[in-house]
Amino acid sequence: MIGELVVSLFILVGATFALIGSIGLVRLPDFYTRLHGPTKATTLGVGALLLASVIYFSALREGLSLHEALITLFLFMTAPVSAHLLVRAGLHHRVESRSRAPAEDHGHPDPEAPI
Amino acid sequence: MSGRAEASTKSGFKLFPHPVLTVVLVIVWLLLVNSIHPRMIVLGLGFGIAIPLFTRRFWPDHPRICRVGVLVRFVPVFIWDVVIANLQVAWLIVNFRRELRPTWVVVPLDITDPYAITTLANVISLTPGTVSSELGPGRRTLLVHSMDVDDPQALVDRIKRRYEAPLKEIFEC
Asked: Alpha carbon of B137 to those of A105, B103, B143: distances in Å?
């Protein structure tokens, strides 16, 4: 009973964060800001869902289940890399940015510069 | 640095070119099949020995971790920051009335080790409101996009103090 409550709590928290991440995709002002949604808000969402899965299968089903830890590990390795590649592609294509430019020039492509 | 140069010039066949990778692969395999049956341990060891041998040419250098103690202290800080980052970003998204101040900042790098820079870039992307965007020429600077910034210099200082300093201790000695 308590186990099921804890599991449902984690599922709800996870679903909420996944939803907020998706709202971020719609609401945030430009391409670069939108990237923050999928790299972060969803990490905790998926984390909570995986925790729910671990508790459910370990405590209420057949026994210790830890392969969810792998999903977390792979997520932590792939999310920043894909975000990095998306930003670079955006910079390369001079996707419009509504962000303040860096204070000094350090040889990075200037997102504000016209094509 | 000299130790690394010697290690990479040493040629000849080694059964375990990357012992740490072997251990990691065995653990990943056991997690993947979700069992610690002896059969699976043997199979995992098979993969753990075969994969580093076949991919040897992709690994010119070993990542060197010199200060395990610093690493052990760094991981909880990092996980805590990931949770806080999620809450902050979620709040910024949900709070419709708030005007965001997204900013590009340039973080000058003190670290030079490629593994340390990769780790720093990934840590930045996973923590509060920042995504590392591009490594500058000569690996001297990192362009970071941040979602909501008051004071760009404070953000740069925070990244250098909280993440770069421990990574420098962990990877460079």
From this structure: 12, 21, 11
Residue B89 with chain A: CB contacts under 8 Å: 24, 36-37, 40-41
**By the 8 A CB rule, do B64 and B167 touch?**
no
Residue B148 lies in a domain: yes
Phi, psi of B144 (to 5 degrees): -125, 135
Assign residue B77 the CATH number of its domain: 3.30.70
Distances in whole angstroms, Cα of residue B56 to Cα of each of B3, B48, B50, B160: 19, 12, 10, 33
Compute the distance between CA of residue A75 and CA of residue A14 in angstroms, rounded to an integer: 15
- Asked whether residue B51 falls in the same domain as residue B83, the answer is no
Same domain flag for B38 and B81: no
| Sequence ranges of the domains in chain A | 2-92
Q: Cβ separation of B133 and A69 shorter than 8 Å?
A: no
What's the CA gap between B50 and B29, in Å, rounded?
Answer: 13
- Identify the domain containing residue B161 by its residue range: 71-171
Task: Please report the ipTM that was assigned to this predicted complex.
Answer: 0.71
B18 and B81 assigned to the same domain:
no
Q: Which site among B30, B75, B82, B104 would you substitute to test the A interface, given the most A Cβ atoms closer than 10 Å to its Cβ?
A: B104
Distances (CA, A) of A95 to A87, A98, A109: 9, 10, 12
Residues A21 and A24: their CA atoms lie apart, in Å, by 5
Task: Give the pLDDT confidence of B59-108 residue by residue, as tens digits.
Answer: 766 667 777 778 888 888 888 888 887 888 888 888 777 777 888 888 88
Q: Model pTM? A: 0.74
